[in-house]
Amino acid sequence: xxxxxxxxxxxxxxxxxxxxxxxxxVDYGFGAGFPELMDKALAGRKDELKDVxxxxxxxxxxxxxxxxxxxxxxxxxxxSWHIGDYERKLQSRGLCQFIPMILRYxxxxxxxxxxxxxxxVPVSLPDDNGYCGLGISNYAWRTIFEHARTVVFEINxxxxxxxxxxxxxxxxxxxxxxIVEGEHEPLPLRTYKDPSPVDxxxxxxxVREIPDGAVLSLGVGGVxxxxxxxxxxxxxxxxxxxxxTISDAFLFLYRAGKLTNKRKEIDTGYSTWNLAMGSQxxxxxxxxxxxxxxxxxxxxxxxxxxxGSMKNVISINGGVELDLxxxxxxxxGGRRQLSGTGxxxxxxxxxFRSPGGKGFICLNSARKxxxxxxxxxxxPFIPGGSVVSGPRGMIQYVATEYxxxxxxxxxxxxxxxxxxxxxxxxxxxxxxQYARETFR
Length: 440
Fold this sequence. Notes:
The chain is of the alpha/beta class. It has helices spanning 12-19, 36-43, 65-68, 85-92, 106-113, 141-146, 197-207, 222-232, 248-255, 280-288, 298-301, 304-308, 344-353, 412-421, 428-438, and strands spanning 25-27, 52-56, 76-80, 97-98, 118-123, 131-133, 150-155, 170-172, 178-181, 215-218, 240-246, 271-276, 293-295, 313-318, 321-323, 328-329, 332-333, 336-337, 358-362, 366-368, 374-376, 378-379, 397-400, 403-406. The chain has 15 helices and 24 strands. The longest helix is centred in the middle third of the chain and has 11 residues, at 197-207. The protein starts with 11 loop residues before the first helix and ends with a helix.
């Protein structure tokens, strides 16, 4: 491979003009890493192109220019692998189409099942040898750009420069067809509300189930964040990290001296992750102490076999609703798509395979509707129009503020009894009546 890349530097406008054709599929990536300059440059070609389809996901920045400049979708159509906060707003305006997927299968989709024409890849400032890091979104970028017709690297001066373990988070400028650089906005931040009393009650139940040396996979949400805070104040020690998204939850654990990764059978001494999403302090931590981390691609991080080869893997994720058989809806409110399956099933299976491992789905027992009435999040059955994200055979532990139900090995009737025991008291008799009639 030739390492001569000096003639590949162009303006974003030139890269957009040379790289993208009518009818193309263009990939923007996933999470807080975003090709800001190329997005603006491509939006500037609205009147020159037709039928350009953009793929991305879990966008937390407040604007995608190709979408906002073309609300009639005359030129650009936007597709999301995983609906983020901003994409939910686009969806309500009819400007975002959802593509279902399980995250560990995403690289194989790109290898064998779908087309990618152009990849806009955000990278860090290069080192003296032309090597860049993939910043805060390793994603499946290497698989994607190796199968793309045209690759554009966008150098973002704010991205952490870490290049991973043995180059696991590294690309070389010579691998791009075009390279662009310029001034960027600060990285998008993910913040958390103070935990509610219900969050704290759920977290207390889960923390009791976590042993010394546990390897943690924490989803992004109130309960996982609260679990981390409680662990930081606990007597537990030598916790590890192998997670899809590293967040401020792990920074809390590190500052408390709890996150050592000493007992991990794989990546001993390293926190392993695929995406980073959180505060500027989190991004600074990645930049200032790169020796602590093994950022890697989806194939590596989300492999259930790899996860299951470690002891005491604890996977903690949120859910929207579960039924009495244990089927879980993690991503929709009726027919409205709220997020995506993402990597939840990867880590549930990995925790199930892990000796001593436990996979938790955490949710409030009930929620208030807009009119103030209470509605149970444990339901007789997942209603029509809603998504079954997790099959009943995959759900191991369910936690609400009323306790933890372990479903593994239980019959349908026993599962219903266990779920009713952690449901909101106002709904237990109604659920029990359904169970008596259904699970005879």
